[in-house]
Amino acid sequence: MIRTLTLTIATMAGVFALPAHAQDSAENNNGMQVGTRFERAPENATAAEARWMQKRVANCVFNRNRDAVREILANSNFYSIHFEQFGQDPETLFDDLEVNYCIGRLMRGADNRTYHTYMQIQYSTLRNLLAEEAYLQDFDGPPQVGASPQDVAARFDGMRVHPQVSTMAGLADCLTYNAPEEAHAMLKARPGSGTEAETVDALGPVLAACANSDDETLTIQTSLIRQIVADGLWSRSHYSAAQVEES
Question: So which residues are the signal peptide here (predicted)?
Fold first, then answer.
């Protein structure tokens, strides 16, 4: 489902293919397939600025609705929000989360610049932006993976999910398990900054290995990588913390 709002925001244009099996290739020390080259998709200054504005809106939404956001995250995955599980009307989600208020607040501090275009955002994109804000607010540093399993089994609580959902979850879990420090650094970096670009370059080879892609070169938008990282870090940290509380 897509809602139209009053702000230009760069959202991910598509999702790269994630084949189940890779071509013949060597394995690295973590048992991941290697051999695919990674390239960061180019991003112009306007897109980078739009992502920074997008983050500020998400931060405002989280700070005004922390409990509601945490409930959304606990009842969702990378691609969808399960509204029926927590009694939320999808038609009123943006109003209930005060998204338009946060956009207006951003515009009032936009250095007297005028933005005439609009944003089209999927619920899933908003969910992943909020996962980033919740992770950064609720956890002081990257998860300590130690001897824990790579896959975060508690994500789905034993429920069967669509293969596309489990594939993306596996990718996010693999990335944050094998490069938690770099993943954390990415979310700490300002969108569009040189620091963010450096973290993407560091994460790229790990992401390519985790994807087990048949393509010789994997080119991914930075905005999509950031969403994958946010989903992976929030899920790993949240469910690990929940397990500690239960024990």
Answer: 1-22
Q: Is the distance from CB of 157 to CB of 223 less than 8 angstroms? A: no
In a domain, 12, yes or no: no
Give CA–CA dist 173/180, Å, rounded.
10
Please state the φ and ψ torsions of residue 120, each to the nearest 5 degrees. -115, 120
CB proximity list for 207: less than 8 A, separation 6 or greater: 38, 171, 175, 218, 220, 225, 228
Give the position of tokens 């293919």.
17
69-124 per-position pLDDT tens digit: 999 999 999 999 999 999 999 999 999 999 989 988 888 765 545 444 355 678 99
Cα(222)–Cα(191) distance, rounded to whole angstroms? 9
Share of residues in the chain with pLDDT > 70 (%): 77
Give the range with max mean pLDDT: 31-35, 36-40, 128-132, 212-216. Answer: 128-132
172 in a structural domain: yes
* 207 assigned to some structural domain: yes
Phi/psi of residue 157, nearest 5 degrees: 50, 40
The residue range of the domain holding 130 is 47-246
